[in-house]
Amino acid sequence: MRKIAFVTQKGGAGKSTLASSVAVAARQAGERVFIIDLDPLQTLVNWSRARGVADIAVEHVPPAKLSKALAALAAKGVTLAIIDAPGQEGDYFSAAVRAADLCVIPARPNAFDLWASEITRMRVKEKGKDYAFLLNQCPPAQQSARVELGAKALQAMGGLLAPLVSSRVDYQEAARLGRGVGEYNPDGVAAEEMRELWASIKRRLKKPASAAKTPSAKPTKAVRNAA
Ligand SMILES: Nc1ncnc2c1ncn2[C@@H]1O[C@H](COP(=O)(O)OP(=O)(O)O)[C@@H](O)[C@H]1O
Ligand SMILES: [Mg+2]
């Protein structure tokens, strides 16, 4: 069983939105998916209630019980556990990072999110975990200098997952209905973005940790430039 955690110190970057739509994309690609909602706000527990079907189970688990819960899921044949973490440091964040094979760190293309990404990256690195960034809520045209600089900064800090995810109403409507964008509008661009994103995450999970780890890039400078 593979375990990915959506983490960042910043609320509103899109952790829960992306965790739910990636869960659906992975489910549609044949994975047996379980979502662990570590956020005390229980956003994805509510998403699951709106969903009304149990093909992707969602459970709120306190941090102290996370590793036991994951072992039980693996024994039950779950192939992908997706952990949605709250947007601040603390036990919940630490438990999510420790449990994950890969930490996905979403950020919007703005200075505050990029600064928060750098701090999150440091915390994840301290725990010796692999991570990749994700740029979310980009303007759909995507050629803006702000997006380009944001993408460059995140790339320099340790790798950016493809694709750049745009700001689209489909994400909000799908979430409201307890769906992923791949169900809400399967032929839409957002659905295609999430299929691509799942493919990128899957490829990244296959890389040996040493190859996936990056470099000696100077994050602070890259982030300052982007900001
Ligand atoms: N790609 C996107 N396009 C449009 N709205 C988005 C997108 N990603 C997130 N949002 C919206 O941004 C807000 C914050 O997203 P959320 O997933 O709750 O963030 P987090 O879990 O990181 O706090 C929500 O209202 C959500 O609908
Ligand atoms: Mg959330």
TrEMBL record:
Coiled coil: none annotated. Residues 4-153 form the CobQ/CobB/MinD/ParA nucleotide binding domain. Residues 207-227 are annotated as: Disordered. Residues 208-227 have a biased composition (Low complexity). It holds the Pfam family CbiA. SUPFAM superfamilies: P-loop containing nucleoside triphosphate hydrolases. InterPro entries: CobQ/CobB/MinD/ParA_Nub-bd_dom (IPR002586), DNA_Partitioning_ATPase (IPR050678), P-loop_NTPase (IPR027417). This is ATPase.
